[in-house]
Amino acid sequence: MTYRVVQWSTGNVGRWSLRSVIARPELELVGVWVSSAAKAGKDAAELAGLDEPTGILATTDAEALLDLKPDCIVHTAMADDRLMEAVEDLKTFLRAGINVVSSSPVFLQFPYGTMPAEAIDPIVAAAEEGGASLWVNGIDPGWANDWLPLLVTSGSERIDQVVCSELMDYSTYDNPKVLFDIMGFGSALDDLPLLLQPGVLTLAWGSVVRQLAAALDVELDEVTQHFERLPTPDPIEVAGRTVEAGTAAALRFQVNGMRSGRAVFVLEHITRLHPGLAPEWPQPTGKGCYRVEVKGEPDYQLDLQLYSGGDHARAGLVGTAARLVSCVPAVIEARPGLLTAVDLPLTTGRGMVHA
């Protein structure tokens, strides 16, 4: 069976999900939405960095794409600085009867316990009204800290703690808005950016620890957050800007799912703009990795290294995009509503093996 798909945005993640949609034999690309007039009218292949034209031209006309009534929209538009607008976009798609796989807003990957019912219920109502499904995922939050750790726990006789970590050098991450405006790199240490405002970490990544707890039948007492920032002793050139000496260049944060005074589930990020910063903090395998630790009987540690064109940052974007696109058929066939990772069947890279 072939499913008709619209790609929504062609930015850092979107250009890679567009490539995945074009590559998958079970998907038919029928439209591409772009936010800028400069991209409008360009063939999808050009926007995806491919040579063979698709005949599908990008447009800024959202209504025209909804009128195509695709089976699914692959939504990868950035939502970090427009959360409520993004949620309204998703509700519009759902009410139109269009299934959605999305990379944001990330708290929707498992909002239960993190968001109030009055925020979740309208999304579910829109999905039920249109008879469509919404699934938000990626790599982190996403399969690096939902399916991957849950698979490891299946080999446990006893589980004492589950720790999911992202340990990355972000010096090649080409998104200045995220690096400087949202994460606060290059700013004074006492100038807290959006990401580190009270409650933001638990909103964004509390969904991770709550989903793990729900999947393993653990009722959490609370979810807490903690962070540290360290400066660079020397100037660093990152994403076309100079991060001056004495400004923030390394960030470590934890979101903890607490039970009986103990952190049973931990989501941790350790982000550096140079590998020599914060040598006392845990180090990645290679230039960057996602690490899963399941402590108990037995103890497990799984380090997932990733590279694309020699760059781990690009690989994370490809892994986010491909995961979304891989799940398009399963989301289309699922019940209407807001889906989580544990609602979907095993999804593989079927059809992607090249001779």
TrEMBL record:
UniProt-listed InterPro entries: DAP_DH_C (IPR045760), NAD(P)-bd_dom_sf (IPR036291)
Gene3D superfamilies per the UniProt record, alphabetical: NAD(P)-binding Rossmann-like Domain
Pfam families reported in the protein's UniProt record: DAP_DH_C (PF19328)
Residue span(s) of domain 2,4-diaminopentanoate dehydrogenase C-terminal: 148-348
Full protein name: 2,4-diaminopentanoate dehydrogenase C-terminal domain-containing protein
